[in-house]
Amino acid sequence: MPTDHWTNQVAIAVTVTDAKGVITEMNPTSVATFATDGGAKLIGSDVLACHPEPSRTQLASMYQVRQPNHYTIRKNGQRKIIHQMPLFKEGVFHGYVEISIPIPDQLPHFDRD
Whole-model pTM? Predict the structure, then answer.
């Protein structure tokens, strides 16, 4: 990502893969988040190799069905919401973007129907 890109200025982890599951981009927060796993050295590696079971099987399935996946986690005491969304360019599947956003333990919810 260009050094002045907005994803480099926000405290969320953004990780991008291609259609084969190869990590192609990581913003600085993503690099820091995955520092113990290799950080920026993960770029060019298979995203499936970075996940244990059952996550690996879930992720492999996502590359087949090309549907979004959303969930929350707690890691190192920090709660996060994870959005894994397929990328399409002119209708052709190009991979996934994963966005990891830190969230507080108590999160207000507003219905705006």
Answer: 0.92
